[in-house]
Structure formats: structure tokens, C-alpha cells
Amino acid sequence: MYASFCSIGAYAPKKVLSNSDLEQMVDTTDEWITKRTGIKERRIAADSELTSDMGVEAAKIAIERSGLDKSEIDLVICATISPDYFNMPSTATIIASKLGLGTIMSFDISAACTGFVYALSVAKAFIESGMKRSVLIVGAEKLSSIIDYTDRGTCILFGDGAGAAIIRATDDKSRAIIDVHTGSDGEYADLLMTPNGGSGSIHDDGSKTFIKMRGNETFKVAVRTLTNDVVDILRENALSSDEIDHFIPHQANYRIIKAVGDALGLRDDQVVLTVHKYGNTSSSSIPMAINDIYESGRLKSGDLMLLDAFGGGLTWGSALVPFAPDGD
Ligand code: COA
After folding, report:
1. Active site residue: 113, 181, 253, 291, which one?
2. 214 pocket-lining for ligand 1 (C-beta < 6 Å)
3. Check: CATH 3.40.47.10 for 1-328?
């Protein structure tokens, strides 16, 4: 049994936070943000809009496009670092309940910006082992709930949103996800973290949990890790970069994406970019980008996608994924 990637959906909240809005909040400029990151604007969820609500909206679209009856879904995995509730219940469980999926298995994955690729890897393993047949994977983030809007080093980068996909069992190898690579290295844990609130808190004074980042060092490790991971997965699968239809990297920073694309010899038309309009939406960024090319008509049945993610942990992952909508 193989696992196929058969549908995609995404949701972006309505409120836009532009670079000029940020100029009013911290000591920064549109010019600085654009030049250093490529980001022009990002979306911010309403106060009443939870991570699970955005995940549900993305999931509804992915389920509808898959042609599945929702009773056929037998596992929900949500990748998030901004869950509705820290610790419990999981956001996946809330999403499953809001969608009316019944009493199926559901759980969250914490792998920061690599979360969607980790979720894909776990869904593939469940399907290939025969334990599950139709898995809903969701990347959903309300990062605005863990951003310090007085810290210009982080608040300019991140945004809210969600993406979802249906991964299904198939016996047709030509439709199957070819490979997923995942890795992590806790030696770099302090580059990107939320230091408050957990059992590792040094000053647990009940203050809010915010993302803290050593941006410049993170940048360098990101370029190296994203590039090496793709070189490895292409080599191991005897593929060259011109056989990739869509390179879909984690949307953290245009300069990171450009450096990785150049190092891999990719043409601009192979590289998918949404960072200018959504910023870094962590685990949602890759499925939101896939949805973007789907809705614009660029993603066709049989196209080969190369996903490439990197995030706090550190974590990283890449995947070779043919787009395999049912009924084609
Ligand atoms: N506006 C204006 N100036 C800013 C600024 C902002 N928003 N943020 C930082 N600066 C200043 C710094 O204070 C520093 O000033 P100094 O030289 O007077 O000390 C200067 O800009 C350079 O800072 P530096 O951190 O070296 O800039 P950079 O070129 O590395 O760009 C990032 C900063 C955050 C854009 C960049 O490091 C980055 O994108 N890193 C990767 C982050 C990332 O992708 N994280 C998520 C991974 S999943």
C-alpha cells in the first residue's frame, strides 16, 4: 500500500498587517523589511478566531476537493506551535470535533516550521503500515498569539493562517509520495524558542510566551540545512532538480529561498513564493503555498512537488510528492 497526496486547501484570515502598519508599532521601515525579508504584508486572525477555526476552514476545502465523504477520514494530525490550548486538549482533536469526524484518532505534532512535512511523514507511515487509509493533515498557526509586537526582530516576520491536505491509500505506485526526509538537532534549540511557560522556564513568572530568535545565526543554518536536505533527497531518489515542477520551500524569508534556489540551480519558475503576502506562517506556510499554485492553476495532476522545510528545534524535512487528485 502507498500514500498519495490527493487534495489541498488553505485559509488566510481577513485582517492584513502591512509593513507600513508595523512602522507605526516598532522602529522599522517598509524598505528595511522588504529588502531583508521580501515580506510586504501578513495576515492576522481575529481575537475570536482560534488556530482550530483556521484549521477547520482549510480542512473543509481539502476534504471537499478530495471527493471523500468525511466519514472515510480515519486520522487527523495537526502541526502547530500555537495551539488553541498549550498542553491539552490537542488542536487536532478540536478540529476533528468541529468537522464532525466522529471519534477517530487525532493528535498534534510539534516540529515548528517543519510541522507539515513531519505530519506528511507520519501520515505516510500510518497508511503504508495499513493502520489508516485516509488522513487529514493540517498546519495551522495563530502566531500573532505568541509574538511580542515590541520586538522588531521577530514581529515583522510572522503571520497567521492554515493549510490542509488529504493523504490517501492507493495501490498505484505512480501516484505515491516518493520519499519524505526528516531530521532534528537539539544542539541548536536556543536559536529559536518560546522560553516561557514550560518545565524549562527559568523565570516562570506567568508572563506571556513569546517567540525569541537569534535571526542572523538562524538565517545561516537555514540556508545550509535546506540546501543539504534537498541535495540528499534528490540524490537518494536519482532525480535531478530540472525534474521538479514546483519547489515549495518553507516561506521564512525571500533571501533564504533565493539562496537555496540558486545553490540548487533551480529556475525562478520552479520556485513557489508566497512570503511577500503571508510572511512566515510556520507549519502552515508550505500547504498555503501549495494551495496558492493550485488555485492559480499552476499545479496540475501528476506534477512533482519538492517540499523543503526548516524550523525551531532545530527541525528540518523535505519531501518528493506527486500531486495525485482522485478521479484524474
Ligand atoms: N527594522 C529595522 N532594523 C532592524 C530590524 C527591523 N525590523 N530588525 C533588526 N534590525 C537591525 C538590528 O538591530 C541590527 O542593527 P545594528 O547593526 O545597529 O545592531 C541590524 O538591523 C542588522 O541586524 P541583523 O539581525 O544582523 O539583520 P539580518 O540581516 O540578519 O536580518 C532577519 C534580520 C531577522 C530578517 C534575518 O536574520 C532573518 O530572516 N533570519 C532568519 C529568521 C527566520 O527565518 N526564522 C524562522 C526560521 S523558521
Report:
1. 113
2. no
3. yes
Are 282 and 117 a contacting pair, CB within 8 Å?
Answer: no
* DSSP letters for 38-82: ---EEEE--TT--HHHHHHHHHHHHHHHHT--GGG--EEEEE-SS
CB-based contact 3:175 (threshold 8 Å): no
- How far apart, in whole angstroms, are the C-alpha atoms of residue 274 and residue 290? 10
232-273 residue pLDDT tens: 999 999 999 999 999 999 999 999 999 999 999 999 999 999
251 lines ligand 1 (CB under 6 A): no
Residue 113 alpha carbon, nearest atom of ligand 1: 48
pLDDT in tens, 172-213: 999 999 999 999 999 999 999 988 777 776 655 666 788 989
Ranges of H-type helices in the chain: 19-23, 30-37, 51-66, 91-98, 115-128, 152-155, 215-236, 254-263, 275-278, 285-295
Where exactly are the structural domains of the chain? Answer: 1-328
Predicted TM-score of the model (pTM): 0.96
